[in-house]
Design brief:
Layout (H helix, E strand, L loop, with lengths): L6 E5 L8 H13 L4 E9 L8 H7 L6 E15 L2 E8 L1 H13 L2 E4 L4 H13 L3 E6 L14 H14 L4 E4 L2 H10 L4 E4 L18 E6 L9 H14 L3 E6 L6 H10 L4 E5 L3 H10 L2 E4 L8 H8 L4 E4 L2 H4 L8 E4 L4 H16 L5 H14 L2 H12 L5
Parallel strand pairs: 1-2, 1-5, 2-3, 5-6, 6-7, 7-8, 9-10, 9-12, 10-11, 12-13, 13-14
Antiparallel strand pairs: 3-4
Helix pairs in contact: 3-4, 4-5, 7-8, 7-12
């Protein structure tokens, strides 16, 4: 019976902004509900930058038998975390009580939120009720907490985060860099290193012989995602050739105006597609010829792995997490960080290969099989089930 199942409570940053961690929460919760009693406590603020229709989210993910309870928060102001800006979310008193009740009812709390007050209350209530708290490190700026080259204000904020995190015994990381950091700074902690999984495409792989489409998927942010570098890259490529079409999927971020400007300047060659649901995004992956990831840093590179599961070779910068994905030469090309000219030349080289019919179905299958072998859903979910299969005494 459901009441005898281990009770897992997820607390994401906020489903309203729907980033990689939030997608991961919904996908994993959908899988785990077959085994556990799963619920999600969702902090929301009227100041959220992007709002997602909950009915649309329900269509995207099988959320039957998963309770999603909102925590209403006051969005105080945008504050820095590492190098990102986000809304400082302060739960209202009645919602603090709701949070307390939900944590008390759970066996294990899996926290993804790095918002200071959500982090504080999660630690407080888990300690009070002796609940197991696992902090999921999905935020790509986690490693920036240990960067000494920051201003006084950022040092103080980093100190607060590090002090709060020091009260947590269990961590789940999705890359080796964060695993090393936790083991170095929190020596008594238990660290579970389990990557994200990738779902198999629903549709057959295909080669687009009509046009060479270069695809980007992600938040339109300068600092992490490198949208400013992508902007310069697109300009360089289109100055050199008119045989390339760029499809830009994503919304939000301080670089969105750059993509809007390019789409107006090059209406035939730059398509700004905004946020797409999973079916439309799958269509983009299938008809694309090449994937680009101009990120300066990543926590996992989920969009890259998704693209490669559809057989897309990639051009990316040679940064720590990404080069761990593009291990084989046939998977793509790594440009010097952050040399947009070399990045541009990589795109043009792939366009020439495409014109010579060398980017064929065999290459796509080879890339897709490599990714499916390393990020198999069943294997990875079994590892995750093992760390959650716990009952508080």
């Amino acid at each position: 019976m459901a009441q005898n199942k281990t009770r897992i409570l997820f607390i994401p940053n906020t489903l309203e902004t729907f980033g990689g961690g939030e997608r991961w929460t919904l996908e994993v919760a959908t899988e785990l509900k077959k085994i556990f009693n799963v619920s999600i406590l969702n902090p929301i603020s009227k100041n959220a930058i992007i709002r997602r229709d909950k009915e649309n989210i329900s269509r995207e993910y099988d959320l039957d038998k998963i309770e999603i309870a909102d925590i209403q928060c006051a969005g105080v102001k945008s504050v820095a975390f590492g190098t990102e800006q986000f809304i400082f979310m302060l739960p209202y008193p009645k919602d603090v009580l709701k949070m307390q009740k939900k944590i008390k009812e759970a066996d294990t709390v899996y926290l993804l939120s790095f918002n200071p007050m959500i982090l504080f209350y999660s630690i407080l209530f888990c300690k009070r009720y002796k609940k197991r708290l696992i902090l999921g490190i999905h935020n790509p700026t986690f490693f920036k907490l240990f960067d000494k080259d920051v201003g006084a204000g950022q040092k103080m904020l980093n100190f607060i985060y590090k002090m709060l995190i020091g009260n947590i015994k269990y961590f789940h990381v999705i890359n080796g860099r964060d695993e090393r950091l936790i083991k170095a700074h929190y020596k008594k902690a238990t660290v579970y290193s389990i990557p994200n999984f990738v779902k198999s495409p629903n549709k057959k792989l295909a080669v687009n012989k009509k046009e060479f489409i270069v695809l980007f998927v992600g938040r339109l942010d300068k600092n992490q995602k490198g949208i400013d570098l992508l902007y310069k890259t697109i300009e360089s490529v289109l100055e050199a050739t008119d045989n390339v079409v760029f499809h830009i999927v994503g919304s939000g971020g301080d670089g969105e105006y750059l993509i809007t400007g390019l789409a107006r300047k090059y209406p035939r060659h730059v398509k700004k597609l905004g946020f797409l649901d999973s079916s439309d995004l799958e269509d983009e992956y299938i008809k694309a010829s090449l994937f680009v990831l101009p990120s300066r840093f990543e926590s996992f590179g989920l969009s890259l792995i998704e693209a490669q599961s559809y057989g897309l070779p990639a051009v990316a910068f040679d940064v720590e997490i990404i080069k761990g994905i593009l291990k084989e030469k046939y998977q793509g090309e790594l440009a010097r960080p952050f040399d947009q000219y070399q990045f541009s030349h990589g795109i043009i080289r792939y366009m020439e290969l495409w014109k010579e019919n060398k980017m064929n179905l065999d290459l796509k299958r080879k890339i897709a099989n490599q990714i499916k072998l390393r990020y198999n859903k069943n294997k990875i979910m079994m590892q995750f089930v093992n760390i959650l299969n716990y009952r508080s005494s």
